[in-house]
C-alpha cells in the first residue's frame, strides 16, 4: 500500500498530477456504442446531446474480427465531435488485461484520443493489483503523449474474486472514478444458473408455509443482486467514488429496466448503462430525482438552516440526519439543474 504522501504523486515523470477530488459530473446514463459499425457511429453526433456519457465499447459484444475496427472507429468518433463542449463525458471500455487486444487498446487510445478521453472502463477487475498496473501504464503513456489531465479508471465488478476485493479496488488509486456491476459475467463467474443480463429472476423468491386450507401460497420475488450491490455501494461511498448499475439486457422490457435502475438509484448509484437508445430516457427519468422529492428536501433544509436540531414537517420528524439526506438530494438536483434547463425549472434550482 502506498504511503499517504505518495498516494497523490504522479507515477511517471511528466505525467499530470492525480486528481484529489472527482470532477463534478452528471453521469445518469453511460451510453454504449459499438464503434466498429459505421451506421451507429454516424449517429453519435445526434445521440451525444441527449446523454451524459458516450462510451465506445471495445470489449464483449464486439466480435474478435472487429476489435481493430472498433478501436479505430472509437478514435475517429472521439475526434469527430466536441463532447467536452457539449458537457458530455467520453469513455471507452477496453479489453481485459489478459486479452490479445488490451495493449493496443490502451496505447493507441491514449495516443489517438489524449485529453479528450475522460474515463477508461476496465472489465473483469479482480483486485487492486489490476488497478495499480493500469495506473502505472497510463502514467507512462500520459507522460509520453503530453496529456494535461489524468485519465480516470472505472472498474467493472464482474468476478467473484472482484467482489471479494471490491473495497481494495475502490481505494486502489486516485484515478478511480467509479465501479459498475457486471451481472452477466458475474453470474457466470459464480456459477449462477441464469442466462439473463441483470434484473430479477422469477425463481429467486421466498414462499410462505403451506396453508391449512391447501390454498395457493403467497410468494415474493427477492433481489438476486442486492448483496453485491450493497457491498459495491458501500465500498464506493467509503472511498469517495461513484457506484453504477451496469447493463439491463431485456431491451424489450422497459418496465423491468426502470425498476432495476430505480433500485440502484435508491441504493445510492449515480447512473446506469444504456445499451439501446430506448434506455436513455429511462435512465434520465430514474436518475433525475423526482421534483416532489426535491421540493420536500428543500423544505427540510429551510426548516433547519444550520443543519441541527429537530423539526416536524407533515407529521415526519426531521433532524441533522434527515438534513443530510435532504442535502444529498438537493445537491444532486442542483448538478442536474446546471445541465438541464427543464429540470432546473421543475426543481426551482
Ligand atoms: C454484458 C455486457 O457486456 S453489456 C455491454 C455490451 N453490449 C453492448 O454494448 C450492446 C450495445 N447495443 C447494441 O449493440 C444494440 O442495441 C443491440 C444489439 C442490443 C440491439 O440492436 P438492434 O437489434 O439493431 O436494435 P434496434 O433494431 O431496435 O435498433 C434501432 C436503431 O437504433 C440503433 N441502435 C441500436 N443500438 C444502438 C446504440 N447502442 N447506440 C446507438 N444506436 C443504436 C440501430 O442501429 C437502429 O438504427 P436504425 O433505425 O437506423 O436502423
Ligand atoms: C457489464 C458486463 O460486462 C457484464 O455484465 O458482464
Ligand atoms: Mg462483462
Biggest sheet, spatial arrangement of strands: 9-6-5-4-3-2-1-10
Cα-to-Cα separation, first versus last residue = 42 Å
The helix/strand class is: alpha/beta
| Ligands bound to this protein structure | acetyl coenzyme *A, pyruvic acid, magnesium ion
Largest sheet: 8 strands, parallel
Number of helices: 15
Defining traits:
349 residues; alpha/beta; 8-stranded parallel beta sheet; two-stranded antiparallel ribbon; 43% helix; binds acetyl coenzyme *A; binds pyruvic acid; binds magnesium ion; Malyl-CoA/(S)-citramalyl-CoA lyase; Citrate_lyase_beta/mcl1/mcl2
Question: Can you put this structure into words, describing what you see?
Answer:
- This protein is α/β, with parallel strands linked by helices.
- It has 15 helices and 12 strands.
- The protein has helices at residues 38-42, 44-47, 67-80, 83-86, 102-113, 128-145, 160-164, 166-170, 183-189, 226-238, 254-267, 278-287, 291-303, 320-337, 341-347; strands at residues 29-33, 53-57, 89-93, 119-122, 152-157, 176-181, 205-207, 219-221, 242-244, 272-274, 310-313, 316-319.
- It has an 8-stranded parallel sheet.
- Strand 11 and strand 12 form a beta hairpin.
- The chain is globular.
- Magnesium ion (MG) binds at residues 60, 123, 158, 182, 184-185.
- It is an enzyme of class 4 (lyase).
